[in-house]
Design goal:
The chain is α/β, with parallel strands linked by helices. It folds into 2 domains: about 45-145 and about 280-310, Rossmann fold (3-Layer(aba) Sandwich); about 150-280, Rossmann fold. Helix content is about 45%, strand content about 20%. It has 11 helices and 12 strands. The protein has helices at about 1-30, 55-70, 85-100, 110-125, 150-160, 180-190, 210-225, 235-250, 265-270, 280-295, 320-325, and strands at about 45-50, 75-80, 105, 125-130, 140-145, 165-175, 200-205, 230, 255-260, 275-280, 305-310, 310-315. The chain has a 6-stranded parallel sheet with strand order 2-1-3-4-5-11, with helices on both faces. It has a 6-stranded mixed sheet with strand order 7-6-8-9-10-12, sandwiched between helices. α2 packs across α10. It is elongated, with a radius of gyration of 28 Å. About 45% of the residues are buried.
Length: about 325
């Protein structure tokens, strides 16, 4: 009996000790600390959703957007799928709408899901600016980017001016379901249709990767060995085309016109492996996209189209770019 009494007393003391330490721990854990210094306050929170997160072209768009965001006190998120995928890209858009951002910059995508999401954003007061590719009949408020149809016309006109004799053309395009690629092909076709000596033979898809461009070029030459001219419509196509053409060691001179001036494209243009390239200004696209969103947030909806410059450059134009600074960052800040 005495043993039981001491045992219960021991349990009671053990319980009280545990309770004491729990109270001490809780006090230290939850008691108010010195006030935390509030984080930097931004005027707006924008999201830039890329076609492919680590694509060099989209990283340049991001650079322009970040520079503008820093200038205008905007918090900018950069998001996107690891590989180009319309549905994955749109899922990121849905998440940012749910997250109640103030504005979204995204490539226009001709898909029912995109229309649903632009409507959803509109209902929640979230402004949408399309960049690089437009979907004009959606609830997007503005578009910033190249006139892709005219860029295609410029590519076709360059091929006419730069070549003589019959040209049998193979096109390597990033994605057949991308509006910007479609417009670049349409503009090219319209430019060459009255030039009987230039004939479009076939089109293959690169899926906007260098390996895809290599495979697409290889497939075109295996199926159509008489091809003697190429047009690449996305940033990595030109370098992929040039590599395969050099490997094939073709007897005939092969004309190549690419798109954009990534470092490897510029190098190939310098050494003569690529004849010409259509230059865009992705840095400007990113910078002006942030500015377009800011205009919308302040009630200025007067300008819905912000076309950035495109032009064709050749080897003898490169020195001019070196002297005037990088082709990507021409914004006057």
């Amino acid at each position: 009996m005495k043993f039981k009494r001491w045992f219960y007393l021991f349990l009671f003391l053990l319980f009280m000790i545990n309770l004491f330490f729990m109270l001490i721990y809780g006090k230290k854990t939850f008691e108010a600390q010195d006030p935390v210094k509030p984080p930097h306050r931004y005027d707006y929170h924008f999201a830039l959703i890329s076609e492919e997160i680590d694509n060099e072209y989209w990283r340049i768009i991001e650079k322009g957007a970040r520079d503008a965001a820093e200038k205008y006190n905007v918090y900018l998120e950069y998001l996107g799928p690891k590989q180009a995928d319309n549905i994955e890209q749109l899922k990121f858009m849905d998440k940012t709408i749910t997250g109640k951002v103030d504005g979204i910059i995204i490539q226009g995508i001709a898909h029912s899901y995109f229309y649903q999401l632009t409507n959803k954003a509109f209902e929640r007061g979230i402004e949408i600016v399309t960049v690089d590719t437009d979907v004009a009949d959606s609830e997007r408020k503005a578009f910033v980017g190249s006139d892709n149809y005219m860029a295609g016309v410029q590519a076709g006109s360059a091929m006419i001016d730069d070549t003589k004799g019959d040209q049998y053309v193979g096109i390597v395009t990033g994605r057949l379901d991308a509006l910007n690629q479609q417009l670049r092909i349409k503009g090219f076709k319209d430019a060459i249709k009255k030039e009987n000596r230039i004939k479009l033979v076939d089109i293959e898809v690169s899926n906007i990767t260098k390996s895809g461009a290599l495979q697409a070029t290889y497939d075109l030459l295996k199926k159509h060995p008489h091809i003697n001219a190429f047009y690449g419509t996305s940033a990595l196509d030109g370098s992929g085309i040039a590599q395969v053409v050099n490997q094939f060691k073709l007897k005939q001179r092969t004309y190549i016109i690419g798109f954009d001036i990534l470092p490897q494209t510029l190098h190939l243009l310098e050494e003569g492996s690529i004849d010409a390239s259509v230059v865009q200004y992705p840095y400007e696209m990113g910078y002006q996209s942030v500015e377009a969103l800011l205009q919308l947030k302040t009630g200025d909806e007067s300008k819905t189209l912000h076309h950035t410059l495109t032009r064709v450059i050749h080897r003898n134009d490169i020195q001019d770019f070196y002297e005037k600074g990088t082709v990507y960052e021409n914004h006057t800040k």
